[in-house]
Amino acid sequence: FDGQLNLGEHTYVMGELAFSNLDYNTFSQLDKVETSPAWKLTANSSTEKLRLNLDLRKLDAKFFPVGGTTSNRGRSRYEKQYQDEKFDDVFFIGETIQKETPTESSADVNVQYEPISGVKLDAGLGRTAEFGIRNSEFGIEEDGIRKDTINQNFRRGIDINIPKLPKFHTTYQESTNLKDGHEDYRKTRERFDITHRIGKVNLSLYDE
């Protein structure tokens, strides 16, 4: 079920509610079919110079869309989550094995401001919470250990694209991982890009 409420020419609120039925044992007529919900709410407002976006969503632990797996229930969502929170995790905590899907909830706020033509400033805050049996690190079994994990992320960027001048772009990201209320680790990543075209030659310089 989905719907959209327009609050103005450039402002709207959109919501979606979904349910999945999952039969864990199709050979048995005694087991109960699990019905689980998921929902999301998106709000967007924009003016000539300012854009604001809010995204809220929650997935029950036993909600599975058609084609979903325990490690990927929503491809577009997990791609964004990797960009904002999970980047470089393999170098810090190694490979993890998804033993059981948790109940997930997330909240993201993004703001973009264009003070003058060709200059854009953007910032974002996000929070993802997972409740339930967590992953086993490095393949080590942790049966019965339940851990709640919260990821908090911050991002800001500057993009300058003025005709005849070099293009400049910089981004900064910070992600903090909390387990059972205690900070587990914090990561930061920053990148600078400068590109400029001279005749038929495109020059590029970046640092990360």
Radius of gyration: 21 Å
| Overall SS class | mainly beta
Q: What percent of residues are in strands?
A: over 45%
How would you sum up the global shape? globular
Main beta-sheet annotation = 10 strands, antiparallel
If helices are DSSP runs of H or I spanning 4 or more residues, what is the number of helices? 2
Helical content band? under 10%
Please list the strands of the largest sheet in the order they lie side by side. Answer: 1-2-3-4-6-7-9-10-11-12
Mean pLDDT: 82
Please report the distance between the alpha carbons of the first and last residues: 43 Å
Unreliable segments (pLDDT under 50, ≥5 consecutive)? 136-144
β-strand number: 12
H/E element sequence: EEEEHHEEEEEEEE
Helix-strand layout with pairing:
Elements: E1 2-8, E2 11-22, E3 34-46, E4 50-59, H1 75-86, H2 89-93, E5 96-97, E6 103-116, E7 119-131, E8 136-137, E9 149-160, E10 167-179, E11 182-198, E12 201-207
Antiparallel strand pairs: 1-2, 2-3, 3-4, 4-6, 5-8, 6-7, 7-9, 9-10, 10-11, 11-12
Give a description of the structure:
This protein has 208 residues and is mainly beta. Helices cover 8% and strands 59% of the residues. It is built from two helices and twelve strands; from the N terminus they run ββββααββββββββ. The longest helix has 12 residues. About 4% of the residues have low confidence.
